[in-house]
Amino acid sequence: IVATGYTTLIIEPNSNIEAPLNGYKLDTEWPALRLSIGSTLNGNGGTVTGSHSARDGHGGEAIEIYNGQSSPETASYASFYDGITVAGGDARRSGAGGAALHVHGFGTTATINGGVFRGGKGSSGDSSDDGSSIYANFGGMVEVHSGTFEGDMEVGDSSTIAFYGCFMKNGDKVTGVFVDETYLDVNVRTRDGGEVRLVSVAEQECETAPSSSPTNFPTISMPPTVLRSGGIRMGASCVYIIVSVLLSWCI
C-alpha cells in the first residue's frame, strides 16, 4: 500500500496488511506500507508485516514513513498505539531481516505510544543479521513513549530517536522505564550524526537524571513533547482511508 499526497491512513484493530513473498514471482524492495509527501498514519491496532523472502534474499520492511521530497513541508507523520504489531519480513539464505519501522527524511516523525515492533529474522540464525525494530535516517525523528521492541534500533544521518521516561545509556545499550511502567532494554546503534535523546517526563519521578556513559553527563531534559495533530497543512485536501478488514496481496 502506498499513501501519498496528504493522505490519512487509519489502521483499526483486527486489520492485517501483509506484503507478498519476495522472490516468488517477483523481486520487490517495497515495504508493506509506505507513506510519503505529507501523509499521516494512525496505527490503532492490527498487524503490518513486511515481505518474507521466498528464496535467497532479504526480508522486506513493514512500514516506511517517508518525506518523498526535500522540503520539511512534505514531511509525513505516524502515531502508534497499544494493539498494533509491526513486523519486518524474514530472510532466507544469505539474507538480512527487514526493519519493522523505517522513518526517513527531513521533518518526518513517528510517535510511538505503544505497540510491538519486531525486526525480521535474518538467515544466520544468530541475530547478527536480524532486522531493526526501528530504523531512522536522513533527518527522521522517532519519539518513543512506550512499546515493546524486538530487535536493535539504528539511527543515522542526522536523525534522532528520543526515549521519554527514566533511562540510562551505556554504550549502545539503552535501559529504563516508560511512564506506563513498560520496561525497555534495547541496543541503539548510531552513525553519521545520528542522535539518541533521553528525555525526562514531568509526571514520572526518576531515581537519577537521564544520562549517557562513558561521560555520564545528563542528556536533554525537558517537558514532554505535545503530540502533533497529524502534520497536515491547513487548507490541504485530504483523503482518509480506514483499514478495518483483512488486507493482503496475493501473487
Describe this protein's structure.
It contains no helices and 24 strands. The two termini are about 15 Å apart. The strands form 2 sheets. It has an 18-stranded mixed β-sheet that branches. The chain has strands spanning about 1-5, 5-10, 15-20, 35, 40-45, 45-50, 65, 75-80, 85, 100-105, 110, 115-120, 135, 140-145, 150, 155, 160-170, 175-180, 185-190, 195-200, 210-215, 215-220, 240-245, 245-250. By secondary structure, the protein is an all-beta fold. Helices cover about 0% and strands about 40% of the residues.
- Average pLDDT works out at 86
Strand content: 35-45%
Helix content: under 10%
Largest sheet: 18 strands, mixed
Q: Tell me how many strands there are.
A: 24
List the total number of helices: 0
What is the H/E string? Answer: EEEEEEEEEEEEEEEEEEEEEEEE
Q: Given the C-alpha coordinates, what overall shape results?
A: globular
Give the helix/strand class.
mainly beta
The radius of gyration computed from the alpha-carbon positions, rounded to a whole number of angstroms, is 18 Å
Low-confidence stretches: 216-239, 245-251
How far is it from the N-terminal to the C-terminal residue, by CA? 14 Å
Which characteristics define this entry?
about 250 residues; mainly beta; six-stranded parallel beta sheet; 24 strands; about 0% helix
